[in-house]
Design goal:
single chain, about 300 residues, alpha+beta, HIT family, subunit A, ten-stranded antiparallel sheet, three-stranded mixed sheet, 10 helices, about 30% helix, globular
Length: about 300
């Protein structure tokens, strides 16, 4: 069953009945965007002041208590309504949107943010919400609640990497394993591995191989650092995997004029950098974007080395 229309209707209903959601979605009309053109692709910078709390708090350990977890069903705002999906997840409207239709998809059970044992559910959700892209932020890569399993979803066509993938200019297929095509993105500033295929089991197997290679590099951490963006179209899944080297760039920790509050998540990796402070939106440059991606992402050579080990 495709839940896309039910989810879109939920967004419309919540904007009309929940003041916070109504204000923040209306505020999207005033969000400022500027674009840096890099030839074959571009990167958008969005100034969205409502994201300041999320950018500062992402991934901090104090969010672990069940009693204080803002994604647990008993702690949701009274005005928040939900759509159950397969008895294990709830579709919610994100009250602090980046997209004109922005969802949070939360586990009914309070358990840690982990992708290895839940990647199959991410694929299911992508097919069940086919008008949305589903994205996953690792516990050290932008997750707003690293101790409660959740995904987010945004209406298709909003993240630059979607169009860049469709254009086939920046992405190059390098291998096929079983029925999965594996591609990388040379000259795109970010080391990315893209999987495409219509066989769910093969996709899971291929992802697991990549996950284990990343785990070997990461060492004893509970999960390798990564972000994922997944979409389902014409019975085919597309999964963009963004291996990470850092949680945050050095600019996040600077003081004064050198500071840029930017804690990259999947959306940023996909080419939409969200700045919650106007001063950062105004001063960020193309050189800053290059430097930030260079710090937090794998380079092309590292991605190709990983792919060749599969």
């Amino acid at each position: 069953m495709d839940f896309s229309e039910k989810a879109r209707a939920l967004v419309q209903e919540q904007t009309g009945e929940w003041d916070l959601v109504g204000r923040n979605y209306e505020g999207l009309q005033n969000v400022k965007v500027k674009t840096f053109d890099f030839g074959d692709y571009s990167i958008d910078i969005q100034f969205n002041s409502e994201r300041i709390s999320s950018s500062k708090d992402r991934g901090e350990p104090h969010l672990g208590s069940v009693d204080s977890c803002f994604l647990c069903q008993n702690n949701l705002p009274q005005a928040q309504r939900m759509i159950p999906i397969d008895n294990d997840f709830l579709i919610l409207v994100n009250p602090y949107p980046i997209f004109p239709e922005h969802l949070t998809i939360v586990s009914v059970e309070h358990k840690d943010q982990r992708i290895y044992e839940n990647f199959d559910r991410m694929l299911d959700l992508a097919s069940q919400l086919s008008k949305f892209v589903i994205y996953y932020n690792g516990p050290e890569c932008g997750a707003s609640a690293p101790n409660h399993l959740h995904f987010q979803a945004g209406i298709k066509g909003f993240i630059p990497i979607e169009n860049d993938f469709s254009s086939e200019i920046c992405c190059r297929e390098v291998r096929t394993i079983d029925e999965v095509k594996i591609s990388h993105w040379p000259e795109y500033q970010r080391g990315i591995i893209t999987l495409t295929g219509n066989n769910k089991s093969d996709l899971i197997g291929c992802f697991n191989k990549i996950y284990f290679q990343l785990q070997l590099l990461k060492g004893n951490s509970a999960e390798p650092m990564l972000n994922l963006i997944t979409a389902f179209e014409r019975k085919t899944w597309t999964i963009h995997i963004f291996p990470r080297t850092l949680h945050r760039p050095s600019q996040f920790y600077e003081k004064g004029d050198k500071q840029i509050i930017l804690s990259p998540s999947s959306v940023d990796m996909g080419g939409l950098l969200v700045t919650p402070r106007e001063e950062d939106f105004l001063k960020i440059t193309e050189e800053d974007v290059f430097d930030i991606f260079e710090q937090v992402c794998f380079d092309t050579e590292s991605v190709l080395t990983l792919i060749n080990k599969l």
